[in-house]
Structure formats: C-alpha cells, structure tokens
Amino acid sequence: MKYIIFIAFLIALGSIICGFLLEVQYSQKLIGFGVLGLFLVVFPLFIYHRWKDKDLKDYMLTKENLDKMRENQKQNKY
User: Is the distance from CB of 45 to CB of 5 less than 8 angstroms?
Assistant: First the structure.
C-alpha cells in the first residue's frame, strides 16, 4: 500500500512540476490534475493507510479517558 501511495505522490508531483516547467498549452491543466491527484487520491489513501489499525476511541475525550488522564497527572505530581 505504501508503494502505491508513493507512486501516486510521485506522479502528482511530477505533473505539477511539468506544468510549471513546460511551455505548452495545457500546462495549467497539468498543474490542476496534479493538485487534484494529491487531494483526491494521495491524501485519502495516506490517511486510510495510517489509521486502518487504530482504535478511534483511544483519541476521543470520553469519561474513562478523562479519568485516566487525571490519574496520570496525580501520579506524575509526586
């Protein structure tokens, strides 16, 4: 999965760089497709890849997590 993300990132970045460097009629389209590729393909794949095995409840402020945080603060004071 990380290789797919890396390849898609390189393609999008290459499209953006080619759009800036080449003097062709469709250079603005190259830049636009590169940016769209980053935001609609690369970033969602990266976020999914990084969060797929994580439990969202560990990052939410629930009563149990707040109690754990208070206990840790009390233990660290002494």
Answer: yes
Residue 41: the pLDDT is 95
- For 71, the 3-state DSSP assignment is helix
Q: Cα(18)–Cα(39) distance, rounded to whole angstroms? A: 18
| Range(s) of the domain holding residue 6 | 2-77
Q: Could you tell me the CA-to-CA distances from 6 to 24, 33, 37 in Å, in that order?
A: 27, 17, 12
> How many domains, in total, are found in the chain?
1
Which amino acid makes up residue 17?
Answer: I
**Would you say residue 78 has pLDDT above 70?**
no
Distances (CA, A) of 32 to 2, 15, 49, 53: 24, 9, 25, 33
